[in-house]
Amino acid sequence: MRKEFLPFARPSVSEEAIADVADSIRSGWLTMGPKTILFEKNFAGYVGASYALAVNSATAGLHCALTALGIGAGDEVITTPMTFAATANAILFTGAKPVFADIDRETLDIVPENIERAVTKKTKAVMPVHFAGTPCDMDEIEAIADAHGLAVVEDAAHALGAEYKGRRIGADRGARRLSVFSFHPTKNITTGEGGMVCTQDEDLAEKIMMLRQNGMSRGAWNRYAAKGSANYDIFFPGLKYTMTDIQAAIGNSQLPELENFNRRRARIVAFYMRELADVPGIILPKPAPWAHKHSWHIFTPFVDIDLLGFSRDEFIARMKERNIGTALHYQALHLFSCYGGITGMGRGSLPEAEYVSDRIVSLPLFPAMIDEDAHDVVRAVKEVCRL
Ligand SMILES: Cc1ncc(COP(=O)(O)O)c(C=O)c1O
């Protein structure tokens, strides 16, 4: 058995990043400033966005995006139940109601026809999540959004480096279209905590710049830097969602490494797919039928609980006994007291999400994993699944 515990994720932060963090601290400019501006510029260039606005988390970015769209009390936003709580929380904190539309158990993404069925007079936006790094079928989703005059906020927390039909997630997709990335330590790149909102929409970009900084029409960097002006106005209240230069210093070192990180992720996934192909008790992910590039934020097979005769939680416990960390992404949101209560949904409401929720498990996947780590995971899975 493996001697040391293998976590399901661990960030790779270079010495260069650590030195740049120290440089920020020594410089006296700790909050948003030149390093954040540089990170935004390079990020926008990488994904192909007109605007990339750094914030202190994807949760904050989703909240800003919905608020900038004017979404609030009495409105509905259609999203997937197979996501992290942040997606629904961002909707709820605008005063709007999340409406869950069921997913496809193979792509794990929201199904466009189910979005169409969930549209009401109150619907203002759709929030698809590119689950694990499989881009949603955006052409279909945008056709529905166009037909009903809805905004689209892509929760792209998992999808940095992913492509849909040859274009990166985050690339410009027109007015009232936004995408939001996360730099939480488990994500494809990290800034400790952090997020980025990308859009082509100039009006929304300007609103988000103000929303992230208490509604102030000019950032601290502009007000206090040598050439900036101290004047600003406030047109509406904002929050404090800015990224700091300490975070951006990490991001500036991470971004050039992203393609290498994602290649390594893809190689580990290819190994898992090969080695676990014939293991009874494990159901492997299937590729989405539309043209795409996966970003492999997480690797999420299903535990075949019907065949094995024990639960996914038991699988997780048995992996832990073998010193292998796993994670649960996710329990379907409508099965949590909070969101079940708000939506009136419970078991039986969203059968596909529930099927997935009962079986899904995230195996270790991070760029610094060595081949031996991946072998240890496969060995442990085979032992746990031995019938
Ligand atoms: C799908 C999804 N949306 C939103 C978030 C929130 O990201 P953050 O932790 O940066 O706020 C996460 C983070 O895990 C996520 O996985």
TrEMBL record:
- Superkingdom per UniProt: Bacteria
The membrane-spanning stretches of this chain are none
- What does UniProt list as catalytic? 187 (proton acceptor)
Q: Name one GO molecular function term.
A: pyridoxal phosphate binding
GO terms (BP aspect):
polysaccharide biosynthetic process
Q: Pfam families given for it?
A: DegT_DnrJ_EryC1
On this chain, the residues bearing N6-(pyridoxal phosphate)lysine are 187
Q: Which SUPFAM superfamilies match?
A: PLP-dependent transferases
**InterPro entries the UniProt entry points to:** DegT/StrS_aminotransferase (IPR000653), PyrdxlP-dep_Trfase (IPR015424), PyrdxlP-dep_Trfase_major (IPR015421), PyrdxlP-dep_Trfase_small (IPR015422)
Alphabetized, the UniProt keywords read: Aminotransferase, Pyridoxal phosphate, Transferase
Which family does the similarity line name? Answer: Belongs to the DegT/DnrJ/EryC1 family.
Q: PANTHER family of this UniProt entry?
A: DTDP-4-AMINO-4,6-DIDEOXYGALACTOSE TRANSAMINASE, TRANSAMINASE
Question: What name goes with this protein?
Answer: Pyridoxal phosphate-dependent aminotransferase
Q: What is the lineage of its organism?
A: Bacteria, Thermotogati, Synergistota, Synergistia, Synergistales
